[in-house]
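@channel anyone free to eyeball this complex?
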Amino acid sequence: MSSPAADEGGVEELRPRVAATVLIAMLVLATVAFSAILGDKIAPDSPFLQRLGTGDTPPSLAHLAGTDLFGRDVLSRVIYGARTALVGPVIVAAGSFAIATVLGLVSGYFGGLVDTAIMRWVDVMLALPGPLLAVVVVGIVGGGYWTAVAVLVVLFSAPDTRIVRSAVLEQRPLPYIEAARTLGLSKTRILFVHVLPNVAPVILAYVILDFAFALVNLAGLSFLGLGIEPGAPDWGRMLFENRNILFSNPAALLLPAGMIIVTAISINLIGDWLLERFAR
Amino acid sequence: MHLHLFEADPWGTTMTASNLVMFLARRFALAIPLLLIISFGIFALVHIAPGDPVRSLLGTRAADPATIAVIRARYHLDDPLPVQYGKWLSQLIRGDLGVSIQGNRAVTRTIKDRLGVTVFLTLMSSALVLGPGILLGAVAAYRQGTRLDRLVVMLGVFGISSPAFVTGIFLLYVFGVLLRWFPIFGSGDGFFDRAWHLALPSLALAISVMAIVIKITRAAMIEELGQDYVTFARSRGLSPHRILFAYVLRNSLIPLVTAAGIIIVGIVAGAIYVEVTFSLPGLGALTVDAIQKRDIPTIQGTVLLFSTFVVLVNLGVDVIYAMIDPRIRFGRVRP
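replying in thread with the prediction:
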């Protein structure tokens, strides 16, 4: 993307503000990651302990975000939920870009028949209604959280391949590649030792944007009652299981819903910031 | 998804002036294999589902030999797979989508009953996406670097990060439960009542998709504003209004046409989530309900409808794109 802020004035004016929002975003993400790793230490209560006699109650001193239909502590479930909110999406982003990096490098560098074949696959994948496909396949095949993660890896790898390919195509005509070729280096060496490091920053920025998109998508599947196992403390799943207690304990819905938005915004801000820095 | 995926020429064709017709013909010809791939996938759902296809198709009905025989005959389960597909496809073309496993109702009839809500929701939402979306993107670009611009950009980040089912819950709580301005269930009768009932769902759906429109319009406008012809028009003394609306905005809408496929898919897929959030009796809620009850004929019907729609929209977008941009028509650039 062309950055029209290349003239000094715009950059000077924008930079400190951007850094402040990004800093907050990093803090938020660090907090969520902290809950994902140390959830069992910091949660005030067990996320699984049912108190059927209590049922759903609004926030109180004993339960800061109230309890759900089964009397489980909502705050503890949200803290535990950080785990499935981060782990799956990280795997989706990393996995789809691992596939995309190999396909995109080969496709962009070699061109020809390989390129055509890979690009046709990408075209077909992009012509399919991806989000709908994910809902149907996860719903029909079953298999829970990991099926959902696997389906998203495949779906995401198609557009990601296109991103890597166009980044490689930008590198191809540059003199350093010609120099490497003149030196008689092998194609694999040129690709992975010379081209890859040059496209890596852009790829990293997109991995992070994919991470946010995967988070939203996985939460969506859980919200439809697909993917993750019933009873698991997961933000999307909580929206599904608590959808009928909006009157008696709104916090049981608003807290996980807010966490999804806040986490996704933080990741997107970091991704956009990296993209702006690296992609110029 | 990511915004510069649709850069280029999806079908690898470079055109000359005489073969716009050829381009359109090829584009149509390519939609057919795609539809066949999709239909095969949908047909295969019966076999992909864990367990015996007969059991999947039987649903909650009693497994007596007579019913099983009827199902085997109805879905041609004794034939080899390609023959089964052929027969299924020919029934499909004649408008027979099979019978729901719950209540033995024709899938086409259920779809017809549910279609209205979904069409209303998606149209209302599209209006919300395009109007304010283009306006905000254009204003942000025109006032680039100001506080207003930053606000709009933040709004875009918020939209992309907030799926419709999440914003829907907040809207439902604030405007439905706390303020009681809007109804919290039902889809309403008659035009105005329905618009009132679908206002919150349409807004929830629009917010996430609007972010894409804002981002594309803003980027395109900024690029156009930097073009030489704008400087030239300014130096000739044309009014800023005329430059903005007659030239810059019009040219900036072209990338939006290219992205129309993504935008429409976003709205249609989002409708599934929104209908579930607001318990609306639409096609999306029907699909999710059918998935939870493993009602495969109904799933096949709705998914087929959704995907055919998406393929046709993408086809339409390519055709419109080739028509509106004369450079493509005359073969000066690749579409």
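from a first look: The domain at 55-278 of chain A is CATH 1.10.3720.10 (MetI-like fold).
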